[in-house]
Amino acid sequence: MTAASSTGQGNGVRLGVVLLATPLLLWLLVLVILPHVDLLLVSLRERIAFRQYEFSFANYIAFFVEPLYWNTYVRTAVMSIMATVLTLIIGFPVSYYIAKIMRGRGKNVLFMMCLIPFWVSELVRTFGWMILLRESGVISSFLQWAGLVDGPVEMLYNDVTIMVGLVYTSMLFMVVPLVSVLDSLDDSLIEAGYDLGGNAFTVTRDIVIPHAMPGIASGCIVVFMLTLGNYLTPNLLGGKDSLWFTEQIYTQFITRFNWESGSAFGFLLLVLSSLIVWIGLKLSRQTLADTVR
Amino acid sequence: MIPSIPQPRFYKGLYTAYVAVFFVYLAAPLIVVGVFAFNDSQFPSMPWNGATLKWFFGDTRPAIGIFNDRQLLRSIGTSGFVAIWVTALAVFVGTCNAFLFERTHFPGKNLLYVVALSPLVIPGVILGISILVFSNAIANNVEETFGWDLAFLRPGLFLVIIGQFAFVTTITTLVISARLRKFDFSLEEAALNLGATRAAAIRTITIPFLKPALIGASIIAFLMSFENFNTTLMLVGSDAPLTITMFDRLKQGSTPALNALSLMLMVVSGALALLAVFAQRGGQGDKT
Amino acid sequence: MADQFDLECRNVGKNFDRFVAVDNVSLTIPKGSFFSILGPSGCGKTTLLRMLAGFQEPTSGDILIKGKSVLGVPPNRRPVNMVFQHLALFPMMNVADNVAYGLRRRGVDKATINRKVAETLARVGLPDSGPKQISQLSGGQKQRIAIARCLVLEPAVLLLDEPLGALDLKLREHMKVELKQLQHEIGTTFVYITHDQSEALVMSDQVAVMNAGKFEQVGTPQDLYYNPQTAFVASFVGESNRWRGTVGETTGDYVAINLDKGGVILADKAAHASLPTGQDVEIFVRPEAIAIGRSDAAPDPVPGNNSLTGTVENVLFNGAASSVQIRETATGHEMSVALPQTGAFANLRAGDVINLAWHASQTRCFAGVLPSGIEGGQS
């Protein structure tokens, strides 16, 4: 009797786990794993005739042979890394200010002020930058009014503008993890650093940054990912010459209807992002699971 | 460094000024978008021609206000429809996942956890195309084998919902897990000890404890879905959600109607975001 | 003259807005002594310590270290080091790097750093712990590393901010002795703040009792215990029976104190010469100063002895610290009396009637009845 009921409960518990796991497995298998496997398979085939395919590396070869694709790829990676580093450099002092200098209510208000803009669609934010920076925009008008320039200035459609937009759009994903990790730094560690003869520079280098490393890593990973996969900002702020790799994917898929080549590009982007995230994690000695804590 | 470390006033001032400039940078585009919603001009740009409300309520060409713009209103409806489905699915699956990851032990759990996080590190565009390619492959196979045309597997709202659900679920899982991790398991044991069944204990003790996180996750999921662009772009069919409609308009050349719409979005999503934050903060409050 | 003191405070005050945290405190600490500041939480002792370390600037007054004013000197340039309340060991570095941190900041060469770190770790009894991570240390070891990290810099004064607070009772007792010994060996001046009177009494050469931002009394532990100068010190240091009363007639060397609730207690006239007849006073008698005897063995009358009888209400057995709660027969006052552990009273039970006696010189009276709200911490 006892044995039966205990095994019964064991089965019950196991059944519970299976029931709980079903949605998870369906989600991951059907929506994440299989589609990406299929993406890989599609990228590795070549169309011979209508609905006739055979295995081939042609799509990848095309990518390496065509300088436009290759250059866009490298350019996207380099600009994304730059945007990540810039976001970190700009966001870190602000996060530190919020976490360690502000006290009480002011701190919460400032933190909320950082968050709220990012609940607004990226489209709206980018639209705001267009209104500010275009030839007939606010900044151009202001410069003319101030007498600093003679005629209208076009500030859209160049790399600096893309960078401004990318950094803006990513800022939240840097500030939130940084504020939370810096918040957990005990003031007395900083005081101890000073007490033992440190100064602002050495205390930041030896105590604050090592402590903030998990936050820095998770912020950088998310920002890099989002930047690399961004479509709106380069497209709207960079115009026709933005040369962002996601635009190539879109073109292959939607405009040219060349899914094989588009899949190959998509896979290359995925490899690139995984590779750089992996390198970043190794360099900062973090793991992916750490960074979401 | 921190208030207890004396610093020269000059550096303090410089630092404060930097933070002030940063907030100007944050606020500028949003303020500009809002202000130009009221500009009495065909374009959301300088010069300022005086204030008007026609971009909200106008009903004559060329100044059709957003409340009279059928196409915009329909796309808002579409976005809302998608977002509600995505929210419901993602919160449900996210809750199951949270219980699975926080409460059970089984071999391969850590690996599964990493896979569950992976949608965070997959660019939205790629998530979109992979689902597009895969669903298309299934649809083609079914059509060849059985001769059935599964229209819902072709680009359209079903795929948009599925695609957004695929990554929003990771977020809801994280939000709900974080809360469940703080749950004091002895509360549930106390309920069992007082005669509750396991299901009743979860329903009466654990779920109410999770409520702030469930509300927070719902709002986050709704907003993420409503504002999603990258994944949606790849999966959209003839019914365009709001972000796609706005993008097309922006490409064609914008009118202040877009500003008016953006302003409404800002107000609504700002309010929802505040609600989400307070829902979760309230949850933290009752714990301490 | 001034440089025989390692640390000197002259009329130091600190206000936060309207609140006076530290009120006109002056102190001098001779070289090589163990100085404690004892007070209840919120008395301003932490603020005072942080001013010494440089994390807060005094509103008024001057702080001198080795005879030189350190006002305006930032904490990283002061020749004092601090052991923080929660130790503040750097979790991102191992033990050796923690200890080496200050030397590195001074630009000391690598070989010297290694040698000094090894020496210091040996001195605190953890010679092999250098490569360990902070999280691998036990509570007592962390304590020693936190001290080593400061000592390696050979500070003029070592400041300790209740560092034993987080340890469990047994370890705390052990660390008290160890700290005292360590200080004795190295001869550095220690300034130790605590709310725990036993820590202060056991370890210190000098103790300052602090209350509401002011020093109530500065003296040796024995001084504080036997000759408290204020009601606060009498109640905060050690245990006391307390009554209220008024000063009555003087007879010979003794003065009678009339208790408000009836009864009379004798006190030394000489020690209370400043109290005029009719003055409201608070009366303190230490439980351990009261001798007890079986009621059948009435004590010989001694001049100046207070002698009472009472009924045992409760025996609070706590080993060597056992005591008895007694209700005095004549007036109904409750009293606490220490129970001698000689075995003579091992069978004392509630309801037993016993004699109580203490000499007038053990009675302490202080003018002015404290409002009942601000009584001392542990009485």
Write the layout of secondary structure elements.
The complex is a heterotrimer of chains A (293), B (288) and C (379).
Chain A: H1 2-43, E1 45-49, E2 52-55, H2 58-65, H3 67-101, H4 104-115, H5 122-133, H6 138-145, H7 159-183, H8 187-195, H9 200-228, H10 232-238, H11 245-255, H12 259-284, H13 288-291
Antiparallel strand pairs in A: 1-2
Chain B: H1 9-36, H2 54-57, E1 59-60, E2 63-64, H3 70-103, H4 109-117, H5 124-146, H6 157-181, H7 185-193, H8 198-227, H9 230-235, H10 242-252, H11 256-287
Antiparallel strand pairs in B: 1-2
Helix pairs in contact in B: 1-11, 3-6, 3-8, 3-10, 5-6, 6-8, 7-8, 8-11
Chain C: E1 5-16, E2 19-30, E3 34-38, H1 45-53, E4 60-65, E5 68-69, E6 80-83, H2 95-105, H3 110-123, H4 139-151, E7 157-161, H5 169-186, E8 189-194, H6 197-203, E9 206-211, E10 214-219, H7 221-226, H8 231-236, E11 241-251, E12 254-259, E13 264-268, E14 280-285, E15 291-294, E16 305-316, E17 323-328, E18 334-338, E19 353-359, E20 364-367
Parallel strand pairs in C: 3-8, 3-9, 6-7, 7-8
Antiparallel strand pairs in C: 1-2, 1-4, 4-5, 9-10, 11-12, 11-14, 12-13, 14-20, 15-19, 16-17, 16-19, 17-18
Helix pairs in contact in C: 2-3, 2-4
Tell me what you see in this structure:
The complex is a heterotrimer of chains A (293), B (288) and C (379). Chain A has 293 residues and is mainly α. Chain A contains 13 helices and two strands. A two-stranded antiparallel sheet of chain A has the order 1-2. The N terminus of chain A is likely disordered. Chain B has a domain of 174 residues: MetI-like fold (Orthogonal Bundle), CATH 1.10.3720.10. Chain B is 73% helix and 1% strand. Chain B has a two-stranded antiparallel sheet. In chain B, helix 6 packs across helix 8. The longest helix of chain B is centred in the first third of the chain and has 34 residues. The radius of gyration of chain B is 24 Å and the shape is globular. The relative contact order of chain B is 0.14. Chain C is α+β, with helices and mostly antiparallel strands and 379 residues long. Chain C has two domains: 231 residues, 3-Layer(aba) Sandwich (Rossmann fold); 133 residues, Beta Barrel (OB fold (Dihydrolipoamide Acetyltransferase, E2P)). A six-stranded mixed beta sheet of chain C has the order 6-7-8-3-9-10, with helices on both faces. In chain C, helix 2 runs parallel beside helix 4. The longest helix of chain C has 18 residues. The two termini of chain C are 40 Å apart.
